[in-house]
Task: structure prediction
Amino acid sequence: MSSAQDPFYIVKDEIQDSIDKLQATFHQWEHIPVASGEQSRLTKELLSNCESIEWQVDELEKAISVAARDPSLYGINELELEKRRKWTSTARVQVANIKRTVSTSNFGGMRQELMRMPKGHQQDRSAPYVAIDNDDFISSESDRQMLLIKQQDEELDELSASVERIGSVGLTIHDELIAQDKIIEELGSEMDSTTNRLDFVQKKVAVVMKKASAKGQFMMILFLLALFIILFVLVFFT
Result:
């Protein structure tokens, strides 16, 4: 099976595209001022995308584990399995590094903002905004969770379709192998039958040759010679 038709590489390319977009967003996030509204938005987007990609990689690793139980059924070998495991491991490390950097920076930015605020200002103004901040946080987290669930549902549907394609390819290969075995068995039976017929004919010829005496062979030669002379005369003198 070519790489273009292998469901693994179809899913792998989709995940790689997501990782490329994640890295592009991360580079954009790095050049945004700390504690700005845009950085906060990108931080949430990056963390959400990291969780989504990690889930996709987990599901792809499960599919690899299933294929590893019987590689020949899916037309792959141990070298290909190791190559696929190495790619998922690399993808997981790339996402984890971005997630750790964003999470750490986000916590540090919040801490710096709190440290810069005067104590009296914190005590006087923090109380009226606690409820508002909590409501905003809960609303934001709820929206993010709903978006994440929606993305995961869509990705789960796509992965389920990929797994179904893998299973369908495996069944097709299995059916083709069974059909080829039947053809080979039929061909073997025909060859055995032909060999038996040839042996029978050879035995019959040997028996006839033994029964034919020297006199009978001489008469046969004379008969054929006479027949040749008659045909020659008819062709050239009539």
Observations:
- The chain has a mean pLDDT of 78.
